[in-house]
Amino acid sequence: MDKNYRTSGYNILNGHSFGGLTATNILLHHTKLLNSYVIIDPSLWWDNEIMIKKADSVFNKKDVENRNIYVAIANKISIPQDTTTDMARGIRRFEKLLKEKKTKNLRWAFKFYDNEDHGTIPIPAEYDGLRFIFKEHLVQVKQAIQNPDLVKEQYQKLSKDTGFSFLPTESYLDWMGNYCLQNDKTEQAISFFTLANKFYPQSKNIYSSLESIHKIR
Question: Is the torsion defined by CA of 119, 124, 129, 130 positive or negative?
């Protein structure tokens, strides 16, 4: 994937049902393989809740180094069923472990979806999981053009929260700079183009934008 796509290096695993069981297994045994985990209505009942038992011991001694976990649970209608496959029971036990173990350098959230069942929960939960991982990441455009430092500060905060070095994209900084120019905010435009030039010194597009500033001035 890294070879064929423009990946950033920050990897998130999203798993639902047995995929959520798989995500939990990787989280427990290969934690550093990925940066964040979105675990949606996982089948933690499987094999007599073996993953719960493993989590009970692993969470006691693990330093997960700024990993993020978002766990979602669907609303289960009460119907007679085999208690060995009780989805909600296993997930709630996993939530209890997250609360009690206080695993080092772990940021996590848990949400019950009252209006979703096992089949409908993936889409809203995946979206909410991404919003949790990148919480407070966005900066309003109108605020940013008044104070470009907000963008730099927000990316620094995001990098600290996730333990990964995030940079604003070249296209974003260039767009913001040109937006400032369109709104007669030349100094702010310079700030965005200068920041872009710092992060992407080989960009011909940024050099072109900086040259356009000099012509205006």
Answer: positive
Domain boundaries along the sequence of the chain:
12-133, 141-216
For residue 194, report the phi and psi dihedrals to the nearest 5 degrees.
-65, -40
pLDDT, one tens digit per residue, over 10-63 is: 999 999 999 999 999 999 999 989 999 999 999 999 999 999 999 998 888 778
The CATH class for the domain spanning 12-133 reads: alpha beta
Give the global pTM: 0.86
DSSP-derived pairing of the beta strands 104-113 and 12-16: unpaired
The per-residue pLDDT for range 167-191, each reduced to its tens digit, is 999 999 999 999 998 899 999 999 9
Residues 6+ apart with CB under 8 A from 189: 177, 178, 180, 181, 213
